[in-house]
Every structure is written in structure tokens, then in C-alpha cells.
Amino acid sequence: MSDQTVRGHAAPHPEAPPPLSPPEEERVVARRGVDLAKWWDRVGILVVLVALVVLMIVIAPNFASVSNLFNIARSISINAILAAGLTLVILTAGIDLSVGSILAVSGVVSVLAATGGWPAWLAILAGVAAGCLAGLANGLLTAYLGLAAFIVTLGTMTALRGLAYTMTDGQPIVSNTLSFRDIGNGYILGIPAPVIVMLLVYVVIWFVLERTRFGRQVYAVGGNAEAARLAGINVRRVITSVYVIAGACAGLAGIIFAARVVSAQPTAGTGYELDAIAAVVLGGTSLAGGRGRLYGTLIGSVILGVLSTGLILLNVQFFTQLLIKGGVIILAVAIDGLKQRPLRRQRTRATA
Amino acid sequence: MTQDRPPLLELTGVTKRYGATTALDGVDFDLRPGEVHALMGENGAGKSTLMKILSGNVARDAGRIAIDGDPVEISGPRDAAAHGIAIIHQELNTVPAMTVADNLALGREPRTRWGSLDRRAAVREAREKLEHIGADIDPSRELGSLSVGMQQMVEIARAVSENARVLVLDEPTAALSRGESLQLYRLVEEMRSRGVGLVYISHRMEEVWQLADRITVFRDGRLVGTRERADVVPDDIVRMMVGRDVGDLYGHPPRHPGEVLLSVDGLTDGELIGPVSFTVRAGEVVGMSGLIGAGRTETCRLIFGADSARGGTVQVRGRTIRARSPQAAVAAGIAMVPEDRKAQALFLIHSVEDNISVSSLRELSRWSVVRRGAVRAGAREQMRKLGIRESALQLPVAALSGGNQQKAVLGRWLMRDADVVILDEPTRGVDVGARREIYELVEQLAAAGKAVLVVSSDLPEVIGVSDRVLVMREGRIVAELDSTTTTEEAVMSHATGTASSPSGAQHV
Q1: Which of B347, B370, B436 sits opposite A227 (nearest CB)?
Q2: Which structural domains are found in chain A, ordered by start?
Q3: B230 touches chain A (CB under 8 A)
Q4: What residues contact A50, with CB distance under 8 A and at least 6 apart?
Q5: Can you list the domains of chain B with their CATH numbers?
Q6: A230 vs B326: CB contact, 8 Å cut-off?
Q7: ipTM of the assembly?
Q8: Which of A337, B7, B422, B499 is the most exposed, having the fewest neighbouring CB atoms within 10 Å of its CB?
Q9: Rounded to an integer, what distance in angstroms lies between the CA atom of residue A204 and that of residue A222?
Q10: What is the band of B301 on the pLDDT scale with cuts at 50, 70, 90?
Q11: Hey, is the C-beta of B330 within 8 angstroms of any chain A C-beta?
């Protein structure tokens, strides 16, 4: 409290405590609420992951083998990359349902480019560019026309799926000599290439989100878009940008997918958007925007991956797997809701 | 008032602790039937905790509550209602998308023989309830289309129809125009004459003096004292509230305005506002007054680019701002502290540090990478200057009191060192102490050569803090008055269009 004496006007009465301190009750309640939230943000989701891994090791003996762990890492990389881009979108209180379709279009574009004689790097670039373009469309429609992101991306999800079918005449284009196939199947220093790509994506996006001005603006826009606008932030540009980044990530994921199956599949990525959203929410990012961390999304993706692989190792029926995955997602959101309650209650109190 | 009868409501030794802190410390309080008992005190003094105990939202740790001398337990809002206690919160508890009648019937909807809603009966009952309190409101209108004042009337009508004997009003006039306030005062008098006991929480000395029979002052969770209004003068109460002499709240040294910093010329939104033209000079504080709906906030938003103008120019230091957006305004050196800080200025879930630094990120970054040390140091510096405890740096800004939240918003613009600062109702919902600090900040801004525009509905404030007062009516500036010579009456007569009654303030 002593820091309060620096004010420039009449010194407080000697007996009275500084009269301008914020309400004690609010402070105390807030601190309690925040601590719980912080604790969960930091370690809660990790605890879930560790518990899950331990469970898997106990009940599925071959789970912990290096080759199996690499398999898991490889299998989660596509969803994790989608989820990384989606985290930015969800942090601005938006949503992108089209990432699965973008994945398909980008895969088709790169395979067509590669089979058309383009060098591998250019084919990859073309796929990412296609993803960016699709994201740009999402972003412009959402930010500048003020349309609801859910509806815009629902529309582009359908339209881009149609585009993928159109470009391939509805048939997979198989190319056994695909020049960039190593990005899906190769190894770098003994680590699967998609895992390396995934880690690079996370490092870059983590840096953008946590260290750059743009990253802070993403949080600000999600926290209160009107306040962000009145604080001088170009809200529309920020919103457009996050959709472009989500599109780029989906493009990259599409290239990896195409490389993995050595073909362009118009049906690729169907339903992936929901897995990606699940990973983001599981990682503690609030659908209301402004709150969440990228590393949570990575852990969320890993949890979903471990769960699927583990259930397969346990020979759990596919239908049952879906039941369990759905339950886990709802549980995670429920925990998220509980953790935010103390703060919310405190806020309504402060206004009462 | 007869003293042998037990008081309507009596609290003895009521205590509430939150962890290590005591929010209410052995409070004795009583309310007589047919009395207006004002509660005063700075934010966080314990008024709202007391209210929450009365409404059953918070359980007390010690003490007893009695109604008509009989001890009662209030363990939830239903109990409160059963004991005839009704609370009108600052933030209204109604459904804006429903009609007035539906709101009044909420939870007790009349049914037809067939079990469906009896809308006609609902409207008829609503009309009776509204007439009962003397409010002239059409029950079939959508509640959200009414002014805040009228919405409040609806809520009071609801409380009264539930046979409330104790009515607690929490800063009821904070969002009301003068005309609406007068209407509310009449309603308060009416309730009093019917023997209802009213607890009236307010920061406004003027209205407390007009309405209250007794005044109780809280400070730091303690009841400082209860006084008969007739026995004290306002300064006594202020002294009780802050525990020291406040002195002249608005007094400021003579100012020496320099060059013109802000120049607004023919600004209009093409509909309701303008054309508006005026200038603000360096080191000058210009007040803007007018009734609610006169277009003050809208004018500020046009200047700041928050809404798009249809015509006119805004210049800062003689340079016209071309692209009209908040972004361009901020870049040109304009800052605005909006009216509704929670909806328009604060990122409630984000830290105080983030809230203060958000508009200065460009300056605090190198190649778009935020220099985190600089952000922290800058935010700390502002907090120190503003008297917000620095330990709050990483706390969500929602955890601060209203006054400190407002200071955090101010800190955001102090950090940017903006040339022109627009303050829209800067002291709304802010207690006396923090209010004084905000005036001092205005003074510092002026002393530092900034151009300051202060919009306020509080007449003594808008005159006291400024050098000139611009009075708006129906979207235009109708008068420019010298603050050293003008009076509240003069400002009001211009605001209302001279002698006409102030009830024309209803349209928004």
C-alpha cells in the first residue's frame, strides 16, 4: 500500500488508511479466482496429458515404444498444424469451419503443380498460397462485410470442397513419383518430417502470438473488439490476418496430407475442422475470444492423438472411440467453464 | 417519528469477511418506515456488501437482521422478496427485448383459461402498476426502446407491485438525465409518503440533500456515522467520507492557453449531429454540457472517427486528419476516454499492464517485436503516476475499482502522450476521492500543454473543471460560456432551450 503515497495532492490523514484503495473484497475474490485459472492454464491440461499417457502405458504395453510415439507424433501433426492456425482465429472470437476444405484444395493444387512439372518447392508454395487465398476470402468477408464468421466459413467450407472435386473431376489423382512426398513420409535426423514441420509452425506462431505487436493485438481484438478499435487498433486488418494465417496452416497441412497419401484427394480433411476446434478448446482457449495459449493447443492436439492411438491399440471399436472422444471434449470445456466462473462472479459483483 | 415502535429494518453488528479482509465490520444500521436513508461512501467502503447481504446474495458472518423487530434470515433473493425487500440495481435486471408488460409480468404471467399467456391481462396489469407509481409509459412498448430512466421506472414499478416495504436504490440517477432524475425524485417522495422505507445510495450530494431524512456514511467497511440531515452541512458528510478535508473539489490555478491544437469545423453525421465547429487550445480545458441525447457523446465519437462523419473536418495542430478512423485519430494525437469504459475501453479479462500499453505498442516495439521490458516499465510508470498500486500490474483490470479502472484507461493515453484528450463522462461511477484525482489529472494534462475536452452531465463539474463550456442541444452547439462567470442555471437554460421545462430530455 505504501506505493500509494506517491500521489501529488494532500497527504492522507495520518490515522486513516489511504482512502482510495480499491475495494478489498473485490481484490481478494479476484485473486482467488485468478490463481485457480492460472494454475489450470499452466498445468491443468498437462496433468490430463500425463495421466492419459500413464494410463495408456499401463493398459497398452506397446504404447511407449519409440516407433509408436513417432507414429502418434506423425499422425497428430496435420491436426496440430490446423489447430495452430485456428487458435489465432478463435482468440479473436472468430471461428473457421473451412480449414478441412482448404486442406483438400491446397493438396490438389500442389499435386497438380508438381505433376505439371513445377519444382517441389514451387508446388509447395503454390499449395500454401492457395490456402492463404482462401483464408483471405474468409477474412475479408468476415472483417469488411461484417458477416458472421460461422456462416462465412460454413459457406467457404462447402464451396472449397466443391472446388476440390471440380479440380480433380471427383477422382483422386495419384502420383507415385510425387516430388514432395518426403514432406509427408521422410525423416530428418531420425524424426518424421511432418513432426519437424509441425514444430516449426508452432515455434513461429508462438513467437508471433507472444512476442509481436500483432500477437498482442490478436488478444486485444478477442478481448473486446470495440475497445480495441477505440484504442487505435486496425481491427479489420487483424481479423483478416488471422484467417489468412489459418488458411496458410491449412494449406501446409494439405501438402503434408497429399504427400502422405502420395495423391490429391478431393475428400481429404473432411471433418478435420472439428478435430482442430476440439484441440484448441481442449487446450484452454476460450471460444469467447481473448483468452488462451498456443502451447495449450499443442497439448490439446497431443491428447486427442494419444487418445485415438491408444484406443486403437486397445482394439476399441471405432464407434466407441467416437463416444469417448466426444466425452473428453465436453469434459474439457466443462472444466474450462468452471475455471472461469470465479472471475466472472467477481466481475458481476464489481458491477452490482 | 415515533421511537417506541421498532424500526422497519434493523441491522446489528453485521460483519462480513472475505479471507483476511473485513468488508463490513460490526455495522449497526436502521431504517424507519416512511424514511429516505441515504448511504454514502467511496467505492469499496462497504455499501455494496451491505446491499448484497440485504438481497441475500452474500451471507453475513456475524450480526443480526430484524424486520419490525423480529429477527429474520435472508439466505437468498427469494427470502429478501418475501420480507418485502426490493433492490433496484445500477445495472438493470430486465429483459430489453421483451415488452414492458412482459417484463412486469415476468415469473407471474397471467394465464387464460386454456393455460396460454393472457397478454391482454398482462398489459392491463402492467398499466395499473405503472399508473400506481405515476409513470406514463406504454406497456406494449419494447423495454429496450425506452430510455434508461424509463426502464428504471419499470423496475421500480415491479418492485412496488411486489409490495416492497424496503426499497434499496443503488445510484439510481447515475445514468439519468435531469428531467428523468426529477421524475425519480417525485417517485421517491411518493414512496416515502406511503410508508415505504428507502435506502438511497448515491454519490451526488445535491440529491441526497434534497431527498434524505438521514445520512449514513461508510468508510473502509466501517460505519462512520449516521446523521439527521437537518443537523449537518455537506462538508461534514464529505469529511466523514474521506476522513479528511477535501477542500475545493474543482479549484484550479489560472491557465494560459496557447496555440489551437484541436480544430473541429462543420462536423456532421448528416442526420442528428452538427454542423459542429469549435477549437480547443493547448493548455485549455473545454467542457461540453447538454442533456442526455443532445449529441455530446456522438460528437466526440465523430471527432475520434469512431463513427463516420458525413461532412466537416478535424484538424490537430493545423493538420487535417484524412482517413477518419480511431486509428488515424490516435496516430494524429487524439485520445478518447469513452463513456462506457467496460464496453468501450477496457479488456476486462486482460492484465492492467496490457490495458495500459495497448495503444502504445508501436512505440514499444522494435521491428514489430514487443520489447516486454519497456512495456512493463512503461505500465509501471503510469500506475505510479496515477496512484494504482503496482502489485496490480498482472491482475485482470476487472479486479480494480471503478476509479482505478478509469485511471488505467487514462494511463493508456498518458503513455501515448496524446496532444488532444477527450474525456466522456470521466467521473461516472467514480467515488469522491478518485474523482478528485481525475480532476488533478485533467489539471496536469492542461499544465503539460494538452488540449482537453471534458463531456459531463454533472453541472458543477463541467463548469468547475473547464475554462469554457460548450452547451449542446439537438446536435448543435447552442452556447459557449465562460466558466469563470457562468452559472449552473445559465448552462441549464441553454441546454433546455431557455425557460422550457427540462422534461424534453426524454428523447434519446
Answers
A1: B347
A2: 25-351 (1.10.3470)
A3: no
A4: none
A5: 9-242 (3.40.50.300), 253-333+418-508 (3.40.50.300), 342-417 (no CATH)
A6: yes
A7: 0.78
A8: B499
A9: 20
A10: very high
A11: yes
For residue A282, what is its C-alpha cell? 481442449
Classify residue B366 by burial, with Cβ atoms within 10 Å: 0-12, 13-18, 19+: exposed
What is the spatial distance between Cα B352 and Cα B376, in angstroms, rounded to a whole number?
10
Phi first, then psi, for residue A117 (nearest 5°) are: 100, 0
Instruction: For chain A, say whether B19 makes contact (Cβ under 8 Å).
Output: yes
* B467 vs B238, more confident: B467
Of B49, B344, B404, the CB nearest to A25: B49
β partners of residue B472: B290, B477
B40 at A interface, C-beta within 8 A: no
Find cell 427469494 and name the residue.
B78
- Would you say B211 and B36 are in contact if contact means Cβ atoms under 8 Å apart? yes
How many CB contacts within 8 angstroms connect chain A with chain B? Answer: 191
A317-351 pLDDT tens trace: 888 888 988 888 787 777 766 665 544 444 433 33
Residue B310 backbone zone (phi > 0: left; psi -120 to 50: alpha; other: beta):
alpha
The answer to whether the CB atoms of A230 and B304 lie below 8 A apart is yes
Q: Would an 8 Å CB–CB cutoff place B20 in contact with chain A?
A: yes
| Interface contact B57, partner A, CB < 8 A | yes
Distance in Å, alpha carbon of B121 to nearest chain A alpha carbon:
33
Q: What is the mean pLDDT of chain A?
A: 83
All three cell numbers of A334: 466443462
pLDDT exceeds cutoff 50 at B375: yes
- Using the predicted structure, report yes or no on whether residue B497 has a pLDDT greater than 80: no
Q: Which residue has the cell 407491485?
A: B161
For residue A5, pLDDT over 60 is answered with no
> pLDDT digit string (tens) for B45-60?
778 788 888 888 888 8
Contact B384 A6 (CB under 8 A): yes
Q: Which residues fall within 8 angstroms of residue A228, CB to CB, at 6 or more apart?
A: A217, A220, A221, A235, A238, B347, B358
